[in-house]
Amino acid sequence: MSILAAIGLTLALFLYIFWPDRNPFVQVDKTRVDYLRERKDVIYENLRDLSFEFQAGKYPEADYERQRIELEDEAALVLSEIDALTARGVLGRRVKA
User: Fold this and answer.
1) Does residue 88 lie in a domain region?
2) Does the pTM exceed 0.70?
């Protein structure tokens, strides 16, 4: 009888430890707006890093200006597309089961 109780307790312990908190088969299907918001965050982070590295003396001014302009142009395109999509009502996340 004690062997069955030990087996049951061990099985319960393994189930408690290894049971997934979420269903791993449900994935979030990102909308274009979600993707663009993530891209915007990456561009802003790259701008901050570029500015920091320029101030640290790692970039010549001409390279810094060129890269900064390219990143700002890309950010402007991303922001304009976000604005256009939100004006049309494309928002939120869809769940794909």
Assistant:
1) yes
2) no
